[in-house]
UniProtKB/TrEMBL annotation:
Cell cycle among keywords: yes
Lineage of origin: Bacteria, Pseudomonadati, Verrucomicrobiota, Opitutia, Puniceicoccales
Reaction catalyzed: UDP-N-acetyl-alpha-D-muramoyl-L-alanine + D-glutamate + ATP = UDP-N-acetyl-alpha-D-muramoyl-L-alanyl-D-glutamate + ADP + phosphate + H(+)
Molecular function terms from GO: ATP binding; UDP-N-acetylmuramoylalanine-D-glutamate ligase activity
Protein name in the entry: UDP-N-acetylmuramoylalanine--D-glutamate ligase
Species of the source: Cerasicoccus arenae
Length: 435
């Protein structure tokens, strides 16, 4: 049982409410039931037969409320629960009360999924049981019955949505990859966004804090003082294994963060280096899809913010036709356009942000074309491709205007690219956009 046993809520005072019937909510429901609790599920869309409203009467009736990360802190359901005096936890936070093993938290604007999965991969190769949880893989609440859990390391990718309301989770280490404009539609300002992630530092159980250089810069800018034990990783000074997925940017910084953690835990560096060689990057992260007539097609659909798209453009060797756009997450589009304009020969724009992005890039001197959807954008990019250059999908925006996920967007791009040379029938790419 967790060392936080004295913090465990009384699950038998009455029913518990789970808000949200997605992956996190169902995980919380399973954990609560495993502990003998009576659970009621609430979801605005009514998924899994959940109740579609959490009324004031419901709030009075439920003394414990667990919510999914999609719920903003000021969501009316959470406000009702607070006013009723309920005990409120986010799913990850609540699950940590029942997790008896070590827990490493990984956060950042970009790179956190890759770093999380690489650490799990390397720890397993070192002989340590480990798994990825949180914002990647499965929710932590799904691992409450893991055998030998007290000797297992949970590497949790923690988003700002999950971090902002923490009150129980106590990580043994925090790795913060970087900080840049993202999720401002939720947090409202860079200060609030940084403060949400800072909550992880406040919850640290041991002096194990490893951050990228941009975190230091933003901490100084926003008035935060990093602890004296902070280890700062500067990508320019990282020596990563040549020939591995981490050999160059933007992955070199991830290796530097992993290495700093490895050294802080006095683990064998040769194992980490070998793990780097046999690690496969997750899909849709600057992935080379095809090369036709000297033109390389890159799928970087995971680039859902400005910082990620800029990193991908910086990694390109040769001229670039850029495919970008999608649902806005806040941030200064004009400044973004001015930063990327010198790296782009031609831009094919899609999604809700295409109109504003078109104006900003045009004003910055870039020739642009707006496409109704991704398939036609790929076809237009092929018509305007540079000689022996790159066609890069690195959108810089969320996929949720036209796709169900960044992975869905990446798969649509792959099919559209393959259809250019007949490797995939053109008819298979016409249904990419969600209804």
């Amino acid at each position: 049982m967790s060392t936080l046993t004295n913090q465990l809520p009384n699950l038998h005072d009455g029913p518990a409410a789970v808000l949200g019937a997605g992956v996190s909510g169902k995980g919380a429901q399973a954990l609560l039931r495993s502990q003998g609790a009576w659970v009621n599920l609430f979801d605005e869309k009514g998924a899994h037969s959940a109740k579609t409203d959490f009324t004031e009467r419901d709030a009075q009736h439920h003394r414990l409320v667990i919510y999914s990360p999609g719920f903003k802190p000021d969501h009316p359901w959470l406000e009702r629960a607070r006013q009723a005096g309920a005990d409120i936890y986010g799913e990850l936070d609540f699950a940590s009360l029942y997790w008896p093993g070590a827990l490493v938290a990984v956060t950042g604007a970009n790179g956190k999924t890759t770093l999380t999965q690489f650490l799990v991969h390397a720890l397993k190769q070192s002989g340590t049981d480990s798994f990825a949880a949180g914002n990647v893989g499965f929710p932590l609440s799904r691992f409450f019955e893991t055998g030998g859990a007290e000797h297992t390391v949970a590497v949790c990718e923690v988003s700002s949505f999950q971090a902002e309301g923490l009150r129980a989770l106590r990580p043994q280490a925090v790795l913060w990859t970087n900080f840049a404009e993202d999720h401002l539609e939720r947090h409202g300002s860079m200060l609030q966004y940084f403060s949400a992630k800072w909550r992880l530092i406040e919850r640290l159980r041991r002096p194990r804090l490893i951050v990228g250089r941009s975190v230091v810069e933003w901490a100084d800018r926003l008035g935060f003082v990093l602890p004296s034990y902070t280890i700062v990783v500067d990508e320019a000074g990282v020596s990563s294994p040549a020939g591995s997925p981490f050999a160059g940017p933007p992955q070199r910084e991830n290796y530097g963060l992993a290495r700093a953690y490895w050294e802080s835990e006095h683990l064998d560096l040769s194992i980490l280096e070998q793990a780097a060689y046999n690690f496969d990057l997750p899909a849709h992260r600057l992935e080379l899809i095809a090369e036709y007539d000297g033109v390389r097609f890159w799928d970087d659909s995971k680039a859902t913010n400005f910082h990620a798209a800029e990193a991908a453009l910086a990694a390109m060797d040769g001229p670039v036709v850029w495919i970008g756009g999608g649902r806005r997450k806040g941030g200064d589009i004009t400044a973004f356009a001015q930063r990327i304009a010198p790296k782009i020969n031609y831009a094919c724009l899609i999604g809700e942000s295409a109109a504003d992005l078109s104006v900003a890039l045009s004003n910055a001197g870039v020739t642009v074309h707006r496409s109704p959807e991704l398939t036609s954008a790929v076809q237009d990019a092929w018509v305007h491709h540079p000689n022996r250059g790159n066609i890069l999908l690195s959108p810089g925006f969320s996929s949720h205007d036209q796709f169900t996920s960044y992975a869905d967007r990446g798969e649509c791009f792959r099919r559209a690219v393959l259809s250019l040379k007949g490797a995939t029938p053109a008819t298979t790419v016409t249904q990419c956009v969600k209804p």
